Amino acid sequence: MQPPHFTGVSALYRYAFPADRLIQALKYQHRLALAGWFGQSLAQACAKVDAQRIVPLPLHPVRLRERGFNQAMEIARTLGNCLKIPVDRHILQRPRATSPQAGLPLKERRSNVRGAFECSGDLGGARILLVDDVLTSGATADECARVLRLHGAGEVHVAVVARALRD
């Protein structure tokens, strides 16, 4: 197995109670104030990450319409304001719908997201901070980082609210 395309991960919490319930409240109960709190907390955790752009992990347009917002974008907005780093919400897109990663065995997650993301510009060596709510297997973050690196990103650091850890 090859190393990930991202250079590091900053995570606030382990994906377990109560963090998992707070993230679910943000995503499924539209508790958007939590995104601001998560963004402020991530700003403290990522203060020493030398990033030039923040890129939220995109949702497929159908999922975005269903949910009404992108939780990663909402977290990234506050994070960017706190760190004074621009948020580029359009450079990375998700044109291919995929099955939810949570319902798949670990071995299938990588192939599920392969080719699901596109980058619309040249990143010219920029250091990217890729933002999402949860990192489980790392397959989605790795695929996004791979695409960003193919389009010139110098390095990609991942920032998440919570990370699932194997016991």
Explain this structure to me?
The structure is a single chain. The protein is globular and about 40 Å long. It has one domain (8-163): Rossmann fold, CATH 3.40.50. Helices cover 38% and strands 20% of the residues. It has 6 helices and 6 strands; from the N terminus they run E-H-H-E-H-H-E-H-E-E-H-E. With 167 residues, it is α/β, with parallel strands linked by helices. It has a 4-stranded parallel beta sheet. A two-stranded antiparallel ribbon has the order 3-4.
Give descriptors for this structure.
single chain; 167 residues; alpha/beta; Rossmann fold; 4-stranded parallel sheet; two-stranded antiparallel sheet; 6 helices; 38% helix; globular
How are the SSEs ordered, and which strands pair?
Elements: E1 8-14, H1 19-29, H2 33-45, E2 53-56, H3 61-67, H4 71-83, E3 92-93, H5 106-113, E4 118-119, E5 127-135, H6 139-150, E6 155-163
Parallel strand pairs: 1-6, 2-5, 5-6
Antiparallel strand pairs: 3-4
Question: Would you kindly provide a brief summary of this structure?
Answer:
By secondary structure, the protein is of the alpha/beta class. The chain is built from 6 helices and 6 strands; from the N terminus they run E-H-H-E-H-H-E-H-E-E-H-E.
* Percent helix: 25-40%
Distance between the termini: 21 Å
Shape: globular
Q: Give the mean pLDDT.
A: 95
Total domain units: 1
Sequence of secondary-structure elements: EHHEHHEHEEHE
